[in-house]
Amino acid sequence: MSESGAPANTLRPSSFRQVMSRFATGVVVLTVGGEHVHGMTANSFTSVSLRPPLVLCCVAHSAAMHGALVAERRFGVSVLAADQQHLARYFADRTRPRGSAQFEPTDWWPGPRTGAPLLSNSLAWLECELTDAHRAGDHSVFVGAVLSTVRGADRDGLLFLDGAFRRVER
Asked: Is the alpha carbon torsion for 82, 85, 88, 91 positive or negative?
């Protein structure tokens, strides 16, 4: 038991990761424009509130996206379609170019509210302004006020489950 009376946490990170891999998540690419242009694949993303419209994403303190989000305070979200697995892998690859060069091999346009790159042919897009950041272990939970949304064409979605990309059919 800890000093607070709560059970001591003896859970191994590998065990936690294995269990959480059973939770299917959507896949998005978070992007930041401006001086700190950057993109990052994320599956820790969700809506928080309808009134006002809020979303959250979780980003490791060690990730380049963490510093970019804190510095720019505005970000874009591209919700990936099933046939965009290559983009999910690309923006998860730590060896890709940095800065604006990382967007050269992709088709995108700058978000009108944020300037953040939005990936073409995605299922949906959001532009957000950072309203809150909360330290949570080795990550920060970033809360964003949604500035704009666009729904794309009806297509199959991209999921992540058991350490692999999956397709969710409409």
From this structure: negative
